[in-house]
Design brief:
By secondary structure, the protein is an alpha+beta fold. Helices cover 26% and strands 35% of the residues. The longest helix has 18 residues, at 138-155.
Length: 226
C-alpha cells in the first residue's frame, strides 16, 4: 500500500477548536530496459475508476459514488466549497472532480465534506483517497494508521492520548473503527473514524466531539443512498 496520510483526526480536532491531510515524492532512476521489459512495466493492473465528489444542497449531503447521504438539522453548519477550499489551502476553482483526481494521483487526500455543530462542539468530515490497490480492507488501514494518529495528536499538544481499534455500527453493519480520546487545554476530546472502501478508493469518515462522546450519534446521521 502507498504511504498515505489519513491523519484527518488532527484536522478534525483543530477545526473544531477553531470554530470553523502528505505527498510522497518518489523518483526511480534505473538503467535502460529492453523494449519488452518496458512494455511489461507499463502494463499496470486496472484498479477501476477513481471516486466522484459528493454534493451539498441545503442541509443535505449525498455522495452517490460511495452510496452515502445525510440530512442535518439547523444546528449544523455545512461547509461550502469555498470554505472547504480555504480549510485545505486551495481555491474554489480547484474543488471539482478533475482537480481532485489530480490531487489523488499525486498522493494527496481530498476533503469531500465538512460540517460543524458549534453548540454541541461536534464535527463530521469526510476525506477520500486512492489507496493504489484494489484489495485493501478497513483493518489494513486502521493497523497502518493508529500509531501515526497518536504521534500527530501529541505533537499538536493533545495530552493523555489513547488510540484504540474497536467496532461500531455504521450504515446498519458492524464495522471496525478507530476510537480516539485525548485532552486539549483541559477539555476532553473524543473521536471515531470509520472507513468505506470501493475498489481502489477509500473514504475516511471522522466524527469528533468535545466534552462528551457523541460520535456514534454523529455517524448515525449518515445513511445508505439505496
Amino acid at each position: 500500500m502507498k504511504n498515505r496520510r489519513f491523519l484527518t483526526s488532527v484536522l478534525a480536532a483543530v477545526l473544531l477548536l477553531a470554530g470553523c491531510g502528505s505527498k510522497t515524492d518518489t523518483t526511480d532512476t534505473q538503467p535502460a530496459d529492453k523494449p519488452e521489459d518496458k512494455e511489461q512495466e507499463t502494463a499496470a493492473p486496472d484498479l477501476g475508476p477513481l471516486f466522484e465528489r459528493g454534493t451539498v444542497e441545503g442541509q443535505s449531503y449525498v455522495n452517490s459514488f460511495f452510496g452515502i447521504k445525510a440530512d442535518f438539522g439547523n444546528e449544523w453548519v455545512l461547509a461550502s466549497e469555498d470554505e472547504i477550499a480555504t480549510m485545505t489551502a486551495q481555491t474554489s476553482e480547484t474543488i471539482n472532480n478533475e482537480t481532485a483526481k489530480k490531487q489523488i494521483e499525486e498522493g494527496d487526500a481530498v476533503m469531500d465534506f465538512y460540517a460543524q455543530n458549534p453548540r454541541g462542539a461536534q464535527t463530521l468530515n469526510i476525506y477520500m483517497e486512492d489507496l493504489g490497490l484494489a484489495n485493501a480492507t478497513a483493518d489494513m488501514i486502521i493497523t497502518g494508521t493508529m500509531n501515526a494518529v497518536k504521534k500527530e495528536l501529541e505533537s499538536q499538544s493533545f495530552e493523555d492520548v489513547t488510540v484504540e481499534k474497536g467496532t461500531t455500527t455504521f450504515l446498519g453493519e458492524e464495522v471496525p473503527c478507530i476510537n480516539i480520546f485525548g485532552r486539549y487545554t483541559g477539555l476532553d476530546f473524543y473521536e471515531k473514524q470509520v472507513f468505506l472502501i470501493k475498489g481502489r478508493n477509500a473514504a475516511s469518515i471522522t466524527a469528533a466531539s468535545f466534552h462528551e462522546d457523541h460520535n456514534d450519534e454523529i455517524l448515525s446521521l449518515l445513511q445508505k443512498t439505496e
